[in-house]
Specification:
Blueprint: H1 20-27, H2 36-47, H3 53-66, H4 71-85, H5 87-100, H6 105-119, H7 121-131, H8 139-151, H9 155-168, H10 173-185, H11 189-203
Helix pairs in contact: 1-3, 2-3, 2-4, 3-4, 4-5, 5-6, 6-7, 8-9, 8-10, 10-11
């Protein structure tokens, strides 16, 4: 099944209680860039374990309002939202994050996994088609495509994508590592070892 042959997936979700991060974005003041101090504060709130996640979420939503264009702060807020309500209830927030930041790998993979789980392979392939309307050439994007194809059970297409990555960017260490992990997940540790040895030889 070609990954680029299906219709586009969901449109942006409406503002509902299911997406408090989007609501915070819309309440925010446009144009306020997040400086290093703001990002550090948001990271600190997201990592706190001494308070209930709901309290951390409230703090992060306030930071989203202050800096509504800051992708990292929104990502942290969605992750904490998931801790509060569970992944199923946080899916709309992940979809919203992906709509606002189409290049977000974290949001893309979460949305892809959930779409595959709830709607099936065809709709999941549509998510991939939207993210990759043309074959990627940068190593990080090529790796993301390979991982995405594996996520929806397209093992042969994933293998081909990993091979294209290795051929085009043999010095890209993460590509070899992720390919080896893929082989491990498929129950082929001997093949994972072969991939790692090939990667060592290629990277030098």
């Amino acid at each position: 099944m070609p990954y680029d042959s299906l219709a586009a997936p969901h449109a942006a979700p409406p503002v509902t209680d299911a997406d408090p991060v989007l609501a915070a974005v819309l309440r925010g003041t446009p144009g306020r860039a997040a400086d290093a101090a703001a990002l550090e504060a948001a990271e600190a709130w997201a990592s706190r374990e001494d308070i209930p996640p709901a309290e951390a979420l409230d703090a992060l939503l306030a930071w989203v309002e202050r800096h509504p264009a800051a992708e990292r702060i929104q990502l942290l807020a969605v992750r904490v939202l998931e801790r509060v309500v569970g992944r199923k209830e946080a899916v709309e927030a992940w979809r919203g994050l992906l709509e606002r930041f189409p290049a977000s790998q974290d949001a893309f993979l979460v949305v892809l996994r959930w779409t595959y789980r709830m709607e099936g392979r065809a709709q999941a392939a549509a998510v991939i088609a939207r993210r990759f309307p043309a074959a990627p050439t940068q190593p990080a994007d090529m790796l993301l495509l390979a991982r995405a194809l594996e996520e929806i059970g397209e093992a042969a297409l994933a293998d081909a994508a990993f091979a294209r990555l290795s051929d085009a960017h043999p010095a890209y260490e993460l590509g070899w590592l992720m390919r080896a992990q893929s082989e491990e997940r498929r129950g082929r540790p001997w093949r994972a070892q072969e991939v790692l040895l090939s990667g060592l030889a290629a990277v030098g």
